[in-house]
Design a protein that fits this description.
With 336 residues, the protein is of the alpha/beta class. Helices cover 38% and strands 21% of the residues. Among the domains are: 41-94, no CATH class; 122-220, TIM Barrel. The longest helix has 23 residues, at 309-331. The mean pLDDT is 94.
Length: 336
Amino acid sequence: MYRFGIAGIPLGSKGRTVKDAVENTFQLGLNHLEIQLFRVSVQDRDLSEFVGMKPYDIDDMLLIELLRGDEEGNYNPIPLDSTIEEGDIGRELFWSMARDYKELKLAAEIAKELDVKITLHTPYYVDFANDEKLINDSILHTIWGGIINDALGGEFIISHLGLIEGERKTTLKKTESSLKEILNRFNKLKIKSRLYIENSGHPDVLGTLEEIKKIEKDIKGIKGIINIAHIYSLESDKSYEKDFFIELIENTKKEGRPLYFEFAGVEILENGEHRFTPIKRGNLKFEPLADAIADFDDEITIISFSPLLEHDALYMKVIFERSISRKIGKTIKPLP
């Protein structure tokens, strides 16, 4: 099974909800949707009128945290499947893609029926190591992502790691501490989603393949996912032919990572910087990757994050289908 999908709502989608995005993804002939948890805000609110209910059952409200006071008057988050009691405080999430858990449940049911798999990407701008407020915000957004992904029946959530300030080793050590805290809160809040880390595409951003490998070794339960355009952005002098991608896929399997690859065109600028482009305009070509994928029987997912989001996802699907056809053609013997 080979899956092609997009990172975000289809550009041609008239509706902007999760349900709309799932349906439009299917209508396009794609079967994976990476939802992005961007542009959200929260507000604390009194829950006295909802005593006896559970957060998942409240209409027109997406409660992302249920806070309950202890004997010392400190409010701490408790699992969202708890029944609301007098004195509890709710933290409501305002997000254009869903108003409440019923909408998320409906989107999950439609996605399952249409065989559109879902993953969720946390905000791109995170900081797990430097500024204390940003660290706390990044941890919270990751937890909220896990809660929403659970409600959508998603496979896993994806996160970046943030900028490096000072020593890389120090930043990595502090980042690992934040990631352990996230997994600890996942456990306490009964969040089932797994957390995967996307490799970085800039030398000042934490998350080289080696750094992710160290995180995988140090923290049980966290794995990496591969953004191929990011690899190219850092090492464009390599030969990105079929053999390179076969080795990349084999190593991904060996490391126990999901065969989930993000792809876009990359243009290297004169000053050494790069920018992501439509695939046809970039220096990184998809054809060698398509030929490599055709040699594997595993379920492999390719996600377009190109500026031409669904257009390039469909372009990659066509290129891959040609690779499969050539492979099949070589195995068919002509009739005598």
